[in-house]
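User: tokens in, sequence out, please.
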């Protein structure tokens, strides 16, 4: 699988304190955003290194959904893996994966083959697509010694057997995590973790609602970076960050501009680059609803009472989340129209990862519904390491003008 770098060849750049206090005490919102940008752009996982320095274990979670409450309850740090972004060159993974696959699969494998995932004890891959399934097959050889688990998620949401099936899947995961440094599963600890994650999701919901109601208050990239920290920090710290950000945003003046309101559909797994997110609003779009980082908006508050494992499974099954890797094909058209109306939005931006079949299949269903209602849309594809966006800029500008001057 190519010449591998040893862990000692990787030079860590950003250092984070073991208490993570630089996040909860950042002197200003702007300083926090910059810190988030630095952490997200650093492929040596500064927050994971800080967590594991004292002997604690971290679990890498491939998008789009993993039961992170469960990992947290076992004393593990669940960390959302979103590939290597713009920050790494692909020089090893190309030999193991076809050129016609999405970037996140290659950059995630590249991180593994270059020992950048050494701080992790375990990896969980949800079975969202063939690419994710195959990565799980390759990982034990790419990261020897780490535990790897394929999480099977139900696609039939109406059977009486669905919740018991998912509970059984969670129990399989528990036994793997216990062998990978996790403390024994205890229902009361899961109930406490569920309450903590409920609060985290409620704060993220407030943040995204603020963006919807007053999109001049914070940019899409700012909102994204604050949310992205949610998969990198201990959740207790992220909750403090979110609570502080809420207060800072309430005091921040809005900076309205002449822009069209759009919803962003498609980037539920691989994430667009920060430059591309910046570009969307620079050209005159207000992104008032998006599919970025859905993990932190997956369901309504979960009841911590009763059997917490069953409640966690039930919440997943009952979630109204409707994205490319969650099958409810007959309602896709209605779903996109409802979202446009709820935003409310003047158009839809499809931003799909190149070679992401689940996202592309849905675009067809969405477009049919939008065409019927004459709602404008634009479809762009992206890759993690795109260097220039001149063509995208032109397409976006034309799209914005066609709505503004309609
Ligand atoms: S970007 Fe699409 S194809 Fe690639 S792993 Fe994610 S869901 Fe699968």
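Assistant: Sequence out:
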């Amino acid at each position: 699988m190519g010449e591998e770098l040893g862990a000692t060849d990787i030079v860590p750049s950003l250092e984070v304190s073991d208490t993570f206090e630089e996040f909860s005490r950042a002197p200003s919102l702007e300083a926090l955003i910059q810190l988030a940008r630095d952490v997200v752009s650093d492929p040596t996982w500064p927050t994971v290194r800080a967590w594991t320095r004292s002997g604690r274990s971290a679990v890498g979670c491939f998008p789009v959904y993993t039961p992170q409450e469960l990992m947290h309850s076992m004393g593990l740090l669940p960390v959302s893996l979103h590939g290597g972004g713009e920050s790494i060159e692909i020089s090893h993974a190309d030999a193991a994966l076809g050129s016609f696959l999405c970037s996140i699969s290659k950059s995630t494998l590249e991180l593994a083959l270059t020992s950048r995932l050494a701080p992790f004890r375990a990896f969980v891959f949800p079975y969202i697509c063939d690419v994710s399934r195959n990565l799980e097959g390759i990982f034990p050889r790419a990261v020897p010694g780490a535990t790897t688990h394929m999480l099977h998620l139900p696609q039939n949401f109406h059977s009486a057997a669905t919740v018991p099936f998912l509970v059984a899947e969670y129990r399989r995961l528990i036994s793997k995590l216990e062998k990978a440094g996790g403390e024994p599963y205890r229902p009361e600890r899961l109930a406490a973790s569920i309450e903590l994650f409920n609060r985290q999701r409620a704060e993220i919901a407030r943040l995204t609602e603020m963006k919807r109601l007053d999109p001049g208050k914070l940019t899409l990239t700012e909102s994204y970076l604050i949310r992205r920290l949610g998969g990198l920090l201990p959740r207790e710290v992220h909750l403090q960050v979110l609570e502080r950000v809420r207060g800072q945003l309430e005091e921040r003046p809005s900076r309205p501009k002449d822009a069209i309101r759009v919803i962003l559909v498609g980037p539920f797994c691989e994430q667009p680059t920060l430059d591309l997110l910046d570009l969307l609003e620079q050209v005159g779009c207000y992104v008032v609803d998006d599919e970025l980082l859905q993990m932190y908006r997956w369901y309504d508050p979960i009841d911590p009472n009763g059997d917490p494992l069953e409640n966690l499974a039930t919440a997943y099954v009952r979630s109204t989340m409707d994205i490319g890797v969650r099958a409810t094909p007959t309602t896709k058209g209605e779903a996109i129209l409802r979202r446009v109306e709820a935003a409310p939005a003047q158009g839809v931006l499809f931003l799909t990862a190149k070679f992401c079949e689940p996202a592309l299949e849905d675009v067809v269903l969405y477009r049919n519904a939008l065409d019927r209602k004459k709602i404008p849309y634009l479809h762009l594809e992206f890759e993690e390491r795109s260097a220039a966006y001149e063509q995208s800029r032109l397409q976006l500008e034309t799209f914005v003008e066609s709505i503004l001057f309609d």
